[in-house]
Amino acid sequence: MVDTTRRGFIVGCSAAIAAMAGSRLTYAAFGDPDGSREVLVVVFLRGGADLLSLVAPIAGPDRSLYEAARPELRLPTSGDGALLPLDAQFGLHAAAAPLHTLFQSGKVAIVHGCGMNVDTRSHFDAQEFMELGTPGTRSVSTGWLTRLLGSAPAPASAALMPSLAVGNSQPTSLLGDRRTVSMDSPGDFNISTGPWMWRDAQRLALHRLYTRGDTAVHRAGIQAMNAMDLVEAFAGDDVPAANGAVYPDSDFGRHMRLIAQMIKLDVGLRAVAVDLGGWDTHENEAYGAGGYFADLAGNLSQATAALYQDLDGSATDAASKRLTVVVMSEFGRRVRENAARGTDHGHGFPIVVVGGSVIGGLHGVWPGLAPDQLYDGADVAVTTDYRRVLADIVVRRFANPHLSQVFPGYTGYTPLGIVAGTDLITL
Amino acid sequence: MRRAGRAPSPTIEPATLAERLRRTRELVAAPRIARDSGPAPDPALVSARLAALSVRPRVRLRWSPVEAADVAPFAIRVLGRMGFGPRPGDIEAFNALAGSDSARLGAYIEEQLFPDSINDGDLDNRLVAAGLTTLAKTRDKLWADHVAGNPDWYVRLLPAIEIERAAFLRAIYSRRQLFEVLADFWHDHFNVYGWDYISAPTWVYYDRDVIRANVLGNFRTMLGLVAASPAMMVYLNTDANTVAGPNENYARELCELHTLGAENYLGVVHQDQVPHDAQGRPIGYADDDVYEITRCFTGWTLDEDTGATIFRTDRHDRFQKHVLGRYIAASQAPFKDGNDVLDSLASHPGTARFIARKLCRRLIGDEPPQRVVDEAAAAFAATVNAPDQLRQVVRAILLSEEFATTWAAKVKRPFEVVVSALRAAGAEISFALNSHLTDSFFWLFEATGHAKFSWRPPNGYPDAMNEWLSTATLVPTWRVVNWTIWASDEQRGNVPVVDLIHQSPAGVTTARGLADFWIQRILGRPMSESARTEVIEFLAQGRNPDVPLHLSDDDVESRLYAMAALIAMAPQFLWR
To answer: For residues B475 and A192, is the Cβ–Cβ distance under 8 A?
Structure first.
């Protein structure tokens, strides 16, 4: 049970929080009872992740091609650090064992050969295009998650926290969504650093100053103070994880734990963007199944599995059932390793989807590693537009048919079948 | 109780101020002549520009989203964009420069464009007092002391730690404010993550000889020094780029971030498909250009013993290349392929536009009008070979109508919020090594997402309000402001960072009077009546705001500090 005496309530800066206190924890009222309670967590692997090292061939001609292209970085199929089989043809990096366990229970979908059909190997172009949801053009001023929320058939108008960005900057996928709450660590999420005696009075006065106007600065300030109240009341390291979930002792682990806490609050959270950086592995990427990449993959895998487990109670309305996690990057990396035990910028990559409504297994079309199958003679090709993966979630989980708004310019969508749900006539 | 001692109020020394005013008046009066380098700006052009500014009737501010009552006075608008906001006395000094806003601006620009002529003795003393020991070391010496022999991690990091402290001291205390704003700009432009294995020990060199030495100099010169610097060569893998294992990281960011910009990137097309401009050069770059540039820079690497930039012929791809419509012959002299590429890029009109737009975005507003961008780009292109190219570009921007008439088209980023708050509040903070206060400050500041030299991707910290007006930025920034204004230095006899008591005028003792004084001091202007009332009521705490307060009472004293921080956290303080 949440401790209602925590300071956030007493300060009472936010009308919404005060109302919540008055109603004694019926905070679900600040969710959106009429709308979908689905929540999408987008994990963006910044830097262009070498996901050929996460999902690698274990047999057949592609295995030979893979081994030839990666004499230093190739992952073994037996012995220490052997790839964990997903099917007869592909295996998961040994450091991603928690994800493999979830895969075996049917909660993980992996889509081969995802990406954009745009010729760029620039991190910044690719990230921006992906997060805007408009490959090749910057003509929109909102992110795709912003438009997912904005075009929802039942808008989350009453929700206190419809979107959350974890980390320090507003991700482009939530560009233009002024209701996005951004935060890093719940314990430091307050302004109680001045004279102790006046901290509540000062915060109240600051709140009032930000109500004396309606500029972008005023609005951002009010939102920050509302978010402080909520987090101070309901989140923190002293709020235990459920179902035996164990988060890794890393920033990303803490971020995923915070996301679980916010989802449990049921305050209308629908879209979460969280970053895991450090994937631009031009040098010293790995030593076999160990080294830098293994640390990244382990951190990703443990934290993602812990988030799922934390929300996966025995109750029929367990939050895991309405959770979908999408793990993506801006592009994959070159098939052939470089001379510095690293890989350079590439093209296609697998998208990993985790959640209670996922149709587990390997999806999409494996593009192959033969020279004539590679993009530009060097990279894993793109066989599935990344928007098709996301569109499945938009339509089937969020029951939102407005694909032309969420992804302007995207045509020809047909269901891929990575999550359960109803196929609507899309607009 | 909390404080054992009181620091004297920091003030501007009258002699220094008088000297500064005298010099700037001379600047206005005298015909502008080149001081150290480069051709002088056309005096007729400058006069015409200033005349145009002065005859314009009360100009309407562009894109001002704030209520009209909150448009800042001219001095605040200038000092907040050509610098990090006023310290006590700066507004009065600016207004005393001349008889009209345009003449004051002209005088201030010409003063600030020649930083060497501005006495910065106070800052110099503070840098010494902070105990910084690496700032004068040469590149060779830095390598010998902080890289060679693989010393402890702290020794390795020390040059970066000292530059971080120096960056705060300079921004807060330097009188060369424009120079500091531009140094910050160029660090963002040529971003390197400064806390790494090679960047940290050589950071003094990168900051001093690569960036700061060329802030008002020539772009091509800075570009070349960046390319050959240990920090950038390791950050973007130039040192590992060989004919046997090409690494395109530097080549790509060189085009996309350092020179032409993504706006001139044409994607995966063949070079012969790229259209040419009237002068016959390709309008932008394609992926093939990136690969060819990668080849040009093969062989550039570092001598592991000395840190010198060396050329390894055995690692160089010696065959001919084709870059941006230019053939580069086979087997050129060492470094010449790369330098040819830098020449082409630095003189390309796309680079002029890209750099001009970024400078306008920093100095004017998030979405600078095309007219001033074009004007700045023209200045850039016309002075490609001038030793003071960037001074002339910056002058063109600052003398524009757009600069003079813009307000609130931009917000302060966390560094600017904190520095400007400490300047306005008359803070005395040493940023000394081995200071708990300094360590706590940096620990708190890091959470703002704007710690110095800590942006990992090569595009540098974002420079638009969308990126910073978020909960994740505001909360930690408020935490730093609230903490620092109230902090005192235990290791120096509990001296307060900001001495509000002694800076408050002797006769001002009521809540209303103190609120008005500190609003004016911190914001440089009054607040709207409704906002002002909130501040007064906070300090009065239910009592008559016109009754004198006893500042010696701990609770009154701490409330005054909380009020000052409240003003520095207010929405009005965030605009630039």
So the answer is: no
Structure tokens at B222: 């800075």
Domains of chain A: 1-30+199-234 (no CATH), 35-189+246-406 (3.40.720)
The rounded distance, in Å, linking the Cα atoms of B515 and B120 is 32
CA distances from B271 to A65, A234, A381, B466 (A): 31, 57, 23, 36
What is the residue type of B178?
Answer: L
Cβ atoms of B408 and B400 closer than 8 Å: no
Residues (pLDDT < 70) of chain A are: 1-36, 138-139, 156-158, 160, 168-170, 178
Alpha carbon distance B303, B308 (integer Å): 5
Q: Which of A358, A236, A296, A260 is nearest to A53 (CA)?
A: A296
CB atoms within 10 A of CB A251: 17
SS3 state of residue A273: strand
- Looking at chain A from residue 270 to 299, which residues have their Cβ under 8 Å from any Cβ of chain B? 277-278, 282-283
3-state secondary structure B223-238: HHHHHCCHHHHHHCCH
Q: Tell me the nearest-neighbour CA distance from A227 into chain B, angstroms.
A: 8
Instruction: Pull the structure tokens for residue B430.
Output: 């040493």
Let me know: does A357 contact A324? Beta carbons within 8 Å: yes
Tokens representing residue A118 in the block = 């745009």
Strand (E) or helix (H) holding B210: none
The burial of B85, by beta-carbon neighbours within 10 Å (0-12 exposed, 13-18 middle, 19 or more buried), is given as buried
Q: Are B73 and B525 in contact (CB under 8 A)?
A: yes
- Six token digits for residue B517: 């004084």
How many CB atoms neighbour CB A45 within 10 A? 23
C-beta separation of B536 from B511 below 8 A: yes
- Are the CB atoms for A209 and B571 separated by under 8 Å? yes
Interface test with B, best of A44, A199, A212, A276 (most B CBs within 10 A): A212
Residues A399 and A153 sit within 8 Å (Cβ to Cβ): yes
Place of tokens 């005859």: B55
Chain A residues inside the 8 Å CB shell of B479: 188, 190-191, 193
Q: Distance between CA A164 and CA A180 in Å, rounded?
A: 5
Contact by Cβ (8 Å): B399, B363: no
Q: How much of chain B is in helix, strand and coil states, percent to nearest 5?
A: 55, 5, 40
A167 to B447: CB separation less than 8 angstroms, yes or no = no
pLDDT tens digits, residue range B304-326? 999 999 999 999 999 999 999 99
Kindly report the average pLDDT of chain B as a whole number: 89
Which pair of structure tokens corresponds to residue A152? 């929802």
**CB proximity list for B355: less than 8 A, separation 6 or greater:** B189, B219, B259, B377, B380, B393
pLDDT at residue number A418: 98
Task: State in Å, rounded, how far the first CA of chain A is from the last one.
Answer: 43
Assess B69–A contact: CB distance below 8 Å, yes or no.
no
Q: Contact B24/B368 with Cβ under 8 angstroms?
A: no
Residue B229: closest CA among B146, B346, B307:
B307
The answer to whether B123 and B173 are in contact (CB under 8 A) is yes
Beta-bridged to residue B512, according to DSSP, are none
Nearest to B245 among A119, A168, A339 (CB): A339
Contacts of A384 (CB under 8 A, 6+ apart): A111, A112, A113, A114, A115, A364, A365, A416
Contact B479 A190 (CB under 8 A): yes
Instruction: Kindly give the interhelix angle for A216-234 and B471-486, rounded to the nearest 10 degrees.
Output: 80
B177-203 b/e with 16+ CB inside 10 Å = b?
Answer: bbbbbbbbbbbbbbbbbbbbebbbbbb
| Least Cα separation, residue B115 to chain A (angstroms) | 33
Q: For B169-215, how does the pLDDT look when each residue is reduced to its tens digit (9 = 90+)?
A: 999 999 999 999 999 999 999 999 999 999 999 999 999 999 999 99
